[in-house]
Amino acid sequence: MKINPNYTTKEAALALYNEPLMQLIYKAATVHREYHNPLEVQMSTLISIKTGGCPEDCSYCPQSMKYHTDLKVQALMPVKEVVDLATTAKANGSSRVCMGAAWRNVRDNRDFDKVVEMVQEINGMGMEVCATLGMLDAKQAERLKNAGLYAYNHNLDSSQEFYKDIISTRQYQERIDTIANARNAGISVCSGGIIGMGETAEDRIGMLMTYVHMEQPPESIPINALVAVEGTPLEDQTPVPVWEMVRMVATSRIMFPESIIRLSAGRTEMSQEGQALCFMAGASSIFAGDKLLTTPNPEFNEDASLFNILGLTPKAPFQDGEQPETKVDEKVEAAKQKRAEQEARIAASKPKSADFEPRKVSVQ
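The structure corresponding to this sequence follows.
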């Protein structure tokens, strides 16, 4: 992934961010058209495969067990249910599925085996598969890669300086280490942040500078606007103005010309005109469907209408990289075999109904 050499210092990047908005949008649109098709936007679907009960204390997140929200904790979804949701998403125009689990870190257990199987199944459908499961080590990353995982999402959220004000249960370096584990396994990286948490413009640029200093920046950079949820420490935050979203999208696009800039959480608070400006400034991906993990999101029909108005078309999968190969996973195969044996035993234990013949009635 390419980095714009004109913005490799924080001072230069901050000056870019603070340029007159119309000039900044024009610059970003020019870069976007050089590296991407401006009339294509990828539709992605985010599925919360395991909801709530997370031990982390991220101040923005209703899934933390430390806060009192209306969110109901749900165990890991069955593989078939996730695959069915992915099938529906594909039928509605999504070419990418991101599976999110409210875990602090991945554990080598049966739940992870099921996630690996989900990746295999959805990759087999010809869709890009992304996962956000918390921290993972090198071996777990390798296993996901072998299953066919296309991308791993692990957001930095903000700058290293502001990070400690919103999270205490996970260190900034741990996030960077997880990104490195995914990268070293050959998985593309999706990593971005949230604006509107009370951070400064310098914090926003500080997050982007962390990516500049990586050996390779993320292939995808999601830009989220905080969705303030009642019961979380940030419940009283004022919604971030759309102009700041446009400014952040444009700055990210110019600094990382080859990366996909993803317009993520907060779209329900944006007008169609605001979203159009984000697309003009370089956003080329949205999450479709009525929920974004646990927060509201525009429905498929609304997005289809917006695409029609703006003359946009959904982007096909694997335009920015080859489809991963799905390899055999011994633990998944063993689980499948065990399920098949259980189903066979249940079927064999059911009493067979006796042959039935209707009673003959003589008619006088």
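The domain at 5-348 is CATH 3.20.20.70 (TIM Barrel).
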